[in-house]
Amino acid sequence: MLNLSDNSIERRIDERTYGAFGMLRSRYTGTWTRRLLAVVGLVVVGLAFLPWTQNIQSTGTITMLRPDQRPQQVPSAIPGRIEQWFVREGQVVAAGDTLVRLSEIKSEYTDPELLLRTREQLAAKTASLDAYTSKITALNDQFTAVTTARDLKLAAARNKTEQARLKVLTDSAGLVAASLNLDVAMAQLARQQALYDQGLKSLTDLEARRMKQQEAEAKQLSALNKLATSRNELANALLDQSTIASEFADKLAKVSSERFSAESGAATTRGEVAKLRNTLANYEARAGFRYLRAPQAGRVTKALQGGIGETVKEGTPILTIVPEETALAVEFYIAPMDLPLLHVGNEVRFLFDGWPAIVFSGWPAVTYGTFPGEVMAIDPVISDNGKYRVLVSERPEAPWPEALRAGGGARGIALLKTVPVWYEVWRQLNGFPPDFYGSPADKEDKKEGK
Question: Are 52 and 421 in contact (CB under 8 A)?
């Protein structure tokens, strides 16, 4: 031993029975130790310069890539009572297949003859509208007839007035002629009187002239009376014309009032007919809502309501349908610090629950049992969990297992830049993020530039 103590054990223990004492005193012990440490150091240095692929790891769940392929709940469009089931869980249905039949629970829709009675009301209102239309047509014809009669009577009155006016003109001319004849007769009578006074004419001639003068006065008076009569007839004709216009204006106003009343009634009835048609269409559509139909082809996965006679509210989900043909995707969440490192088109490798795998995250070439995917979308808004949602789809050249189902777990490894192992260890010890290396489009641009 080292003989550092005064209490030696050489006399008490036989060192030849223990191999360790022999190794301690061997001259090769230090050499082999140094060689072993050198080899270990060389291996560590070699490993430090090996390439290491940086990555971002996160867990996610399997979902459908397209929204119309995700599990869809079929709700009830109306409140009702479940009367009959036409499907069971696990059954494959086509688009439009009847799933469930409901019955009405609201009192205004429980009448079994509701559609028939509504159609009868619509027919009655339509007949009323037709009657209003016929009445309007008849009133229009009556208005036309009254207008024609007014025009004819006014034309006759105008003719009569014109005749009276012409007669007044004629009688005025006759009065003027009679007045001239009277003036001539009076002048002749005066000359005859002068001649009689001189003894040149006889009394008989004078009396004859006086008779002619009286006849002229009588004719003038007759012409004056005739003119007055003609003027009265003209005034009466004008009055008749005004009376006819006023009388027919009253008739036309009455017909127009009745026509406007009929048009108002027709408009009101037309509105009621439109309302009844709308109501009938709503009733017919509601009758269709009593039958829940499959919105698309798929498989019935779960009945959310059960039994017969159970009442459901409007919008209550009844069952869930999952489309048969789906394009799978994985959604997982990354930290905000890692967001700038991912871009649409990056490769992500997944470990799916139920599929064994041997994973070396830094050496994807020697990894077995992972499946590649491509980043399809990255949410621009952070989620409630404080991370950003990433959606990854499968690649056509490397399809995922057919047995995958929505809701299954997946562990994603997003591959980034390749660096030496020593650099990755240094980065991890210092808490630095992985190196930013740009999007796939940037890489292609750099290659084209070179």
Answer: yes
